[in-house]
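Margin note: ligand = flavin-adenine dinucleotide.
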Amino acid sequence: MSKVPTAADVVVIGGGFAGLSTAWWLQRRGISVVVCEREPELGVYASGRSAGLGRQLAEDDATSRLTVRGAALLREHFDVAWHATGGILSFDELAAAEAYVGRAARLGVPIEVEDRAAVLTRWPALGDLPVARALFVPSDGMIDVQALIAAFAAPLTILRSATVQAIVPQGDGVVVSTTRGAISARIVVDAAGAWAGTSTGDPPLASYKRHVFVLAAEAVARAPFLWHLGAREVYVRADGEHVLASPCDAARIAPTDQQPDLVGESHLHATLELYGPDLADAAIVRRWACHRSYTEDRQMRLGRDPARRWLVWAAGLGGHGATAAAAVGEQVADAVVLALT
Ligand SMILES: Cc1cc2nc3c(=O)[nH]c(=O)nc-3n(C[C@H](O)[C@H](O)[C@H](O)COP(=O)(O)OP(=O)(O)OC[C@H]3O[C@@H](n4cnc5c(N)ncnc54)[C@H](O)[C@@H]3O)c2cc1C
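Resulting structure:
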């Protein structure tokens, strides 16, 4: 096990995308940073279990600014983890499609408006999908989440099996107690995912369980991912020789190690029965579940705490944290630099 440093400029709680990316940007700026991860491995929770869709147009402009910037940074610095496939967003209501057309225009994301036939050329398996309009986003892509975790982690000092237990303000910084020893720091970044706020006694985020399934079915070669933003949501993408699908379920849960369950599976089957019965019959090759965690207003909590000068947040990444990861870290690292000066 790596030696535990006794001091650093910054201690980051959590070795998911939020914490790793923040530490990666801080290290580039010459700031000494230690990431404490409770688990013996990285990516045990949401980051390692993400479906890896690099979708830039999210549900609101603020989140989309982060996903657009995040995708640009992935293309620039982490091309090992980015696959330029494009993505399709489809809608069963024209008004919903129009809202996304407006968002794309405001954020400068090129799109191509498509009809149902064009969608089904790429995803014939979803032949009953009720598509009123679709948008093809050529600059969307797919993210190899394990490769991205490895790329963020490569240059960093990471303490694995190091649970942050307490943070005690002392002088112009804090002492961070972990299960592997104490570290003095000027700033703590709370990037603890679903557990953000636990170490500081803040109210918990709201967490929602989501399932992902890999099906023994074939995707059309080089098909972009398809995310149907209808009354009944679903997304699919190629996964090697198979098809990855999520019924976009969102059961409110307490953050623990989520395991796939029969409720998630029946949600998948009910959705696919409606949209693509052949896909509904495909055998499940792999399955997993995890939680997506949100603040009350569903905006990511990034930046300095208003009351505690030693605390900076990188939390509430919700359902877009893989795509936004590099932009989240960039923004949080800016806030840390300000807090250190
Ligand atoms: C099923 C699923 C599919 C998804 N698909 C996509 C997608 O296609 N595209 C996309 O962009 N996003 C997707 N997301 C969202 C994305 O995965 C998350 O937004 C992102 O991974 C959250 O990262 P995080 O670092 O905040 O949390 P996490 O990855 O959960 O990391 C937090 C870490 O903090 C550690 N920790 C907690 N408490 C402590 C402590 N006291 N001391 C030390 N360590 C601690 C935890 O062990 C954990 O490793 C998906 C999420 C889920 C669940």
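The mean pLDDT is 97.
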